[in-house]
Amino acid sequence: MEIPNSVEKILLDEETIAARVCELANDISADYADDDGLILVGVLKGAFIFMADLARRLNVSHHVDFIALSSYNRGTANAGAVRLIMDTRTSVTGQHVLVVEDIVDTGYTLHYLLRTFHARKPASLRSCVLLSKPDRRQIEVPVDYLGFEIPDVWVVGYGLDCADRFRTLPYIGALRREVYE
Ligand code: PRP
């Protein structure tokens, strides 16, 4: 596959991602082996590819559902505030909820999600996140299943975007600075 000029380098190639997704799915399958009612909640749009690959690797019965959020512009007085624009279709009360995210950056989004789902009284609540940028964290959030820690660079592909571009690249690449600055 051709690498767009905007991508400076590949951080995680397809094989590396696939192997880690498989490991995460095995860990999750083992942990939920005795539980009924696992719901994976994918956070749109970024998690759609990770969610699809992870869900298909699980060996435990589960349902999938999705939620969509909008973050207020970073750098404004509202930075960190998150708004729910599409909720799950199913009720999560009494179910085992696993929130599936592509990336944790400041932590505000995952913090909002965990607080929101906690209030709905699930049987259990955990998070599975493909990428974490620890250097960017503004608020501490628990990540129960983590794919990779990455440096503070703008990453695209495998669901992640820059102005809605590059989401369907099969690898995770670092964008050239001049593309987003
Ligand atoms: C990204 C990502 C997370 C969030 C993480 O979503 O998918 O949901 O940012 O950032 P935070 O830790 O600083 O809150 P984005 O707002 O880019 O929307 P998208 O998933 O539709 O691309």
SSE inventory with pairings:
Layout: E1 7-12, H1 14-31, E2 38-44, H2 48-57, E3 62-71, E4 82-86, E5 96-104, H3 108-118, E6 124-132, E7 145-149, E8 155-156, E9 172-175, H4 177-180
Parallel strand pairs: 2-3, 2-5, 5-6, 6-7
Antiparallel strand pairs: 1-9, 3-4, 8-9
Helix pairs in contact: 1-2
The structure holds 1-O-pyrophosphono-5-O-phosphono-alpha-D-ribofuranose.
Quick gist of this model?
The protein is of the alpha/beta class. The protein has helices at 14-31, 48-57, 108-118, 177-180, and strands at 7-12, 38-44, 62-71, 82-86, 96-104, 124-132, 145-149, 155-156, 172-175. Strand 2 (38-44), helix 2 (48-57) and strand 3 form a beta-alpha-beta unit.
Structure characterization notes:
With 181 residues, the protein is an alpha/beta fold. Helices cover 24% and strands 31% of the residues. The protein has 4 helices and 9 strands, in the order βαβαβββαββββα. The protein has helices at 14-31, 48-57, 108-118, 177-180; strands at 7-12, 38-44, 62-71, 82-86, 96-104, 124-132, 145-149, 155-156, 172-175. The strands form 2 sheets. Strands 4-3-2-5-6-7 form a 6-stranded mixed beta sheet, with helices on both faces. A 3-stranded antiparallel beta sheet has the order 1-9-8. Strand 2, helix 2 (48-57) and strand 3 (62-71) form a beta-alpha-beta unit. Helix 1 (14-31) crosses helix 2. It is globular. The two termini are 26 Å apart. The mean pLDDT is 94.
